[in-house]
Amino acid sequence: MDLLKTALIFAFVTSGFGTETKGASFNHATVRRIIDGRDVFIDRRPAAVNQSADRGQEISTGRSRAELLFDRRALGFLGTNSLIKLGEDCFRLNRGQVLINGPQNSCLGTKVLGIRGTTYVLSVRENNNYELAVLSGEAIIGDESESNELTKPQNAADILTLYPTINPEFGIGTSAWGSNTSGEPLGEAAGVILANTSFFLPLRQTNGSNLLYTYTTANGNFDGIWGASSEIGYKWFNPSNQSINSFLVGYDGWSDGNCFHSQVAIGGLWQKDRWKLGASGGIPMDGCANNLGYAIGELGVPVVDLGEQSITLSLAPYLIHGIGDSYGGGRIGLNVPISNQLTLSTYGQYDNLLNTVIGGQISYRFATNGSLVNDPNINQQSPSSPAVLQAQRIKRNYTTLANSNLNANRLIAETPSTIQSSNVTDKRRGQSQDSVYLQAGDIATFDSDGNLLSRRQMSKQQFSDVVIETMRGQNLLPESNIIKLTYQRLYGEPNRQLHTILGSNWRFAARTPYPRLRGANNLVVPNNKIAKEAERIRNNENESEDSNNNESEDNNQNNNERIPNNSSETPTPGIQNIPGAGSTGTPGQ
Questions:
Q1: CA of 525: how far to CAs of 105, 179, 322, 491, in Å?
Q2: What are the DSSP calls for 310-356, one per residue?
Q3: Mean predicted confidence (pLDDT) in 352-380
Q4: Integer angstrom CA distances of residue 359 from 5, 138, 520
Q5: In sequence order, what are the residues at sequence separation of 6 or more whose Cβ sits closer than 8 angstroms to the Cβ of residue 1?
Q6: Is residue 76 within 8 Å of residue 28, measured between CB atoms?
Q7: Cβ within 8 Å of residue 134, ≥6 positions away
Q8: What H or E segment, with its residue span, contains residue 166?
């Protein structure tokens, strides 16, 4: 019977938990980026970008900050006046501050910090105590074997492949515009209602902050008006000032029922903190009499924040060229995001060619796989129960007990209570036997030997300050989106600055095409203006011809000079005085 009980216990503690895993050995850390100067050093010698430090070496900073890559399994942001020493299984922070995203263990005195799906910030204070803030995931501070149990092998994937990516999207909607050109009722002289479809396809995405894409639209109605548009663009995130930049080239073709129009389009856009500054233009490539070329600038002003987006007011001066002349005008627009997928926009404009134009659009976009953003880190954020960790320790202890020939009934009696005592509440309290557990949003202080001194949940302001201090001016992290979701869960919606630092603005802007005129939404010269322009040109030509005739008569009149009177010559009545004419006397005398 005792043998049967022993076998059952062994099967229980080994099934579902797998084998004990030792953390991967450390090889080297590479300097990926230097910020605010060049005060980054390896063993007190100046370091350069792409230079690596091996185990046993030190990486330090002065007034600069550095981005580090640990064996392609973790990223680190080393703060100013900081120093880390690289060991075999962990690094040791001797001064300053470091942020780590990924399974890279750290030594705290005699203890080891192990993590799962985690971004944490470790600091050394003036009294040599450690301060640990967990921004996402979970951490355990204990002996090396316990910490390695939390750092699972699946977390050791190439960290550079774990950035969120933008998924392809389809879009449907409708647009309309009308004009009261020449004082006629709105929409009578020009106007159209169109149904729109679109497809957004990311072609290449790197480091979560660079995107090459194509965007294609088609629109039309039952009145024979239709069009299509295609463009290729490139967007990138600039970490230095945390701005978003984009550039595109495209082609538009559409029919207005009388002529097929085509144009080449170019555009560029700069965005920061949801402010926008852009310019675009279209060059006609057709021979239609009513075509228009255009150039337009845009200033976008966020007026009301709605989570990851804002209601934006746009002011756009423009210049259009058609029927032999150029016309300046201005447009004012309002873009209202109803949700991440539904958008309403409207605008009004005026110039001397089209007069007043009022238009708008409703668009709805949805991803091909149900998610607008694919974040591989979300699947790694499921917390591991302390019961699992303790069951693994029980399995290890069981082997020791069996080898010592202890009574198996003792293990049967202790196993259920040990596992049951390690519930979520105990985990939130942060203590389980000799180890300390921390969840996202926790901050703890340890002495120089790694012993827990205090532990609490960060306040909303404290969490924000940690993010701003460590991540402002840095590249986006693979877990930036997870950190944002953690903030939302704990404190509510982040402010605009946090959305910028954590990449929310980038992820939205990356999948949003430039708001330019496309396809059949392009305006053309109204037919009545073409007729009036033709009449104006004929009148101008007639006036010019009359002016030339009058000028010719004036010249002839000026040339009809009279011969001056003198004692020997008398003018003959009825004869023009033409230079060179005979003057010998009066004929018939």
A1: 67, 11, 7, 54
A2: EEEEEEEEEEEEETTEEEEEEEEEEEEESSSSEEEEEEEEEETTTEE
A3: 88
A4: 79, 51, 13
A5: none
A6: no
A7: 118, 119, 120, 438, 439, 440, 441, 442, 443
A8: strand 165-166
32 strand-pairing partners: none
Long-range pairs for 343-351 at CB < 8 Å and ≥24 separation?
345/515, 347/314, 349/316, 349/318, 351/318, 351/320, 351/327
In a 13 Å sphere around the CA of 448, the CA atoms on its Cβ side amount to 6
CA of 273: how far to CAs of 233, 370, 408, 500, in Å?
21, 28, 64, 6
Helix (H, G, I), strand (E, B) or coil at 408: helix
* SS3 call for 137: strand
Instruction: Give per-residue pLDDT as tens, 232-243.
Output: 999 999 999 999
CB of 319 within 8 A of CB of 144?
no
Phi, psi of 20 (to 5 degrees): -70, 135
User: What does the block give as tokens for 320?
Assistant: 């259009």
**Rounded CA gap, 309 and 80, in Å?**
33
Instruction: Give 556's pLDDT tier (boundaries 50, 70, 90).
Output: low
Going 34 to 36 to 37 to 38, the CA torsion angle's sign is negative
CB atoms within 10 A of CB 258: 12
Residue type, 281: G
- Residue 81's φ and ψ, nearest 5 degrees, are 50, 50
- The string of pLDDT tens digits covering residues 309-350 is 999 999 999 999 988 889 999 999 999 999 989 999 999 999
Written as six digits, the tokens of 535 are 């009449």
Tell me the three state secondary structure of residue 92.
Answer: strand
Query: What's the rounded Cα separation, in Å, for the pair 282 and 328?
Result: 15
**H or E element, residue 534:** helix 527-559
Tokens 């704990």 locate to 490
Instruction: Measure the CA dihedral 256/257/263/266, to 10°.
Output: 30
Q: Which of 179, 249, 166, 255 is nearest to 218 (CA)?
A: 255
